[in-house]
Amino acid sequence: MECKRINRRNDVLAEKGMTNKQLVEALDKDSAVISKWVTNVA
């Protein structure tokens, strides 16, 4: 059976009422890093 990667980042952001931009600012990371997390590249 193939292992499916699950990314709950969007669900958690919605629960907290945060946007991607707010996450970038809160974590003091580059938007490219957050983008890689979203697409499960990193």
Can you walk me through this structure?
This protein is mostly helical. It has one domain (9-38). It is built from three helices and no strands. It has helices spanning 9-16, 20-27, 31-38.
Shape: flat
Order of helices and strands: HHH
Individual helix count = 3
Spatial separation of the terminal alpha carbons: 23 Å
The largest β sheet comes out as:
none
- Backbone structural class: mainly alpha
Give the rounded overall mean pLDDT: 82
Q: Care to give the gist of this entry?
A:
This protein is mainly α and 42 residues long. It contains 3 helices and no strands.
Tags for this model:
3 helices, flat, 57% helix, single chain, mainly alpha, 42 residues
What are the SSEs and their pairings?
Blueprint: H1 9-16, H2 20-27, H3 31-38
